[in-house]
Amino acid sequence: MASAVKLPMVPAADLESFSAYLRSSNRILALLGAGLSASSGLPTFRGAGGLWRSHDAMSLATPEAFDDNPGLVWQFYSHRRHMALQAKPNKAHLALAELAIRKGGFLTLSQNVDGLSQRAGHPQSKLHLLHGSLFDVKCTSFYCNYTEQNNFTDPIVPALAITSRDRDPTPSDGDLNGTGAIRSHDRAMDQGYSNRQSGEETDSSDEKTVIPELNAHDLPHCPKCGDGLLRPGVVWFGEMLPEKTIVAVDDWIKKPEPIDLMLVIGTSAKVFPAAGYVDRARAKGARIAVVNMDRAHAPGGEQGLMDEDWFFEGDAGIVIPEILKSVIGDIDE
Fold first, then answer.
1. Rounded distance between C-alpha atoms, residue 217 and residue 295, angstroms
2. In principle, which of 2, 178, 245, 262 could form an S-S bond with 315, CB 3.0–4.6 Å?
């Protein structure tokens, strides 16, 4: 007989001290990474081979790739949009959205492009996207400045409809250490994954699945100028990070009031500018609370945390609602 899964508990002393400090905190900065969405079962296209069909996914995330083959790039991003829309915001997304509502001095800087924070109801004025969003689009014409946010239409144009049934992400269920989320991610990323034996269709990321070659007229066009192709509103390799986002976060940090707390969730914060925000928050008086699967992935590694900081190990989808409970109450999905 199978035994019940035993969930690791957040250490009581850490939970008590963090909860008391959280209740007294107003100016709070949250830095979010891919680990936040792990328990939503959403795959990422970095690591684990990083392939989409036979293509290196990173090679499709460049302006040059879009110039060379906009149809292929849009098929890749349409697949990612579809997968993100199949996933649901988990309790961590919902808990952070509620904390943003309840704490006037709360600001979130997300490295995620999956749209799950937006769909969780996170106040837009308190959510800044460092790498853009799969669900934002902008015109590529030099003379046009058209942009659109939170376009959740799937497919965005009929030619990008996914005709084969993509494998739906499977959320982790009661998996505090994140093993289930990782296995779900690996299954979704496995290019050889197939349900042919059971008669189910393969997904469109499998290179054996035939997809059409698209022409420019099949792709999303700008409704403002009529000529320019729309492109995904993500930051591609070789592009500058969004100036508006950088300025907004810098202005918030530079305010004369101290920063009480910084939450670092699902990211090692090793790449700049994200890596610099931890040090800048500390310089303004912040204590740091890290939620991650591995202490070695905390900012600065295992030695990067100070005695007054907190480290909560496990799946953010389970840990975050627990440690924020004293302020936001229970979260229902």
1. 49
2. 178
**pTM: predicted TM-score of the whole model, two decimal places:** 0.84
Q: What is the residue whose two structure tokens read 């300025």?
A: 247
> How many whole angstroms separate alpha carbon 294 and alpha carbon 266?
10
At 261, give phi and psi (nearest 5°): -150, 145
Measured CA to CA, the distance from residue 27 to residue 253 in angstroms comes to 10
Which residue type sits at 298?
A: A
Q: Which amino acid is at 131?
A: H
State the amino acid at position 166 in one-letter form. D
| C-beta of residue 322 within 8 angstroms of C-beta of residue 289 | no
22: exposed, middle or buried (Cβ count in 10 Å: 0-12, 13-18, 19+): buried
Catalytic residues: 131
Task: Give the chain's mean pLDDT.
Answer: 84
The residue-averaged pLDDT of 122-140 equals: 97
**303 pLDDT exceeds 60?**
yes
At 197-252, the pLDDT tens digits run 343 434 677 777 778 889 999 999 999 999 999 999 999 999 999 999 999 999 99
Percent of the chain with pLDDT over 90: 65
Amino acid, single-letter form, for residue 161 = A
* 43-52 long-range contacts, CB within 8 A, separation 24+: 43/83, 43/169, 43/185, 43/188, 43/189, 44/185, 44/189, 45/80, 45/189, 48/185, 48/186, 48/189, 49/189, 49/191, 51/191, 52/76, 52/79, 52/205
pLDDT tens-digit series, residues 75-110: 999 999 999 999 999 999 999 999 999 999 999 999
- Comparing CA positions, the residue from 151, 185, 213, 206 lying closest to residue 315 is 185
